[in-house]
Amino acid sequence: MPSKCLCLALPVGRSSATTIQARSSATTAIKQLRDKMKKLLIYMLLVASPAFAFDGSRLKEYMLANEAVTARKPRADAYGAGVAVGYVTGVADARRGEFWCPRPGVTYGQTMDVVAKYLRDHPERLDSNADDLVVTALHYAFPCPKK
Q: Which domains can be identified in the chain, with CATH numbers?
């Protein structure tokens, strides 16, 4: 059975404008794939959250995979990176305004950085549920105003 893959060939010996356009197309394709992965993971969280629940140690592994992919390290775990992005953004979206209140302009990249830092700084909490750790990290970084 033929495998399906997202394979992009960059032109060799072409002008730099053509190469830039090809790289731009590749970047757009990767962003679209990430968006689809995020939506799928959010759906999984909403429909089957007990089956998909994991602890902080597993989340930290996925976050490290995301950092490796972001740094374009060879042999980085793209699947783990996708799980990290989807999980953190899914939990963040589900709890926005309830437990954490980002100021305008806060990006998903910033939320990923906040969660990664919290996991590094609090190894004693890695046995906790991953969603609790995400919410706690975001709450400390972006608390909601007192009512």
A: 34-141 (1.10.890.40)
